[in-house]
Amino acid sequence: xxMVAGLSIISPxxxxxxxxxxxxxxxKQEKMxxxxxxxxxxxxxxxxxxxxxxxxxxxxxxQARAALQNQDFVLEAESVTFKNGSTVFVNSxxxxxSVKGNRAVVQISPSNFASGPNGLGGVTVxxxxxxxxxxxxxxxRITFSMNVMGVGINAQVEIYMTPGSSQASAAIYPNxxxxxxxxxxxxVPYDNSDVFEGMSL
Length: 201
Description:
Elements: H1 2-69, E1 72-81, E2 87-89, E3 96-100, E4 103-108, E5 123-136, E6 142-150, E7 154-161, E8 167-174, E9 181-189
Antiparallel strand pairs: 1-2, 1-3, 1-9, 3-4, 4-5, 5-6, 6-7, 7-8, 8-9
C-alpha cells in the first residue's frame, strides 16, 4: 500500500515535467521556424537588391561607355592621389575632368578651407583637347587619352574605365612640371553631371 501511494504521488510530477519539456521543445521549434522564415525572406530581399544593383550598375556602365566614346562626359572624382602617394577624399562636385566636344575642364580642389586660384580651394583649367584616342583592352577595359592645352596648363590626361561599371581612374601629367595627379571616381554623361566650375586660369 505504501508503494502504491508513493507511485501515485510521484506520477503527476513526472507527467508535469514531461508536459513542460514538450512545451519548451515546441516553443524552441516555433522560434527556429520563425528564424528560418525570416532568413528566407531576407535572402529573397537580398537577392532582389543585388539584382537591382547589378541592373543599375549595368545601365550606368553602358551610359558611361557611350559618353566616353562620344567625348561628352564628366569624371566626377571621389579621391585625389598626389605624387608623394598621399590620398585625400574630395567633393565630386568640385573635383572633376569634363569633356564636351573639343573642350575640356580639369578642376582639382582638394581643400575645403583655402580659396585657391579658382575660389574653390584649388585650380581650374579650361582648355582645348587634341590627340584624343580611345583604345579597348582585354576584359573590356577602355582607355581614353587626350592632350589638354589651355592658358594655365598643357597636360596629358589618361582615363581608365573599369569594365562593367561607371568607375574610372585618371592620370594627369602636366607638361611643365612633374606633379602628376591621379583621381578616382565615376563617369557620367555630361548633361547628367552636377559639378560646379570655378574660375579658370
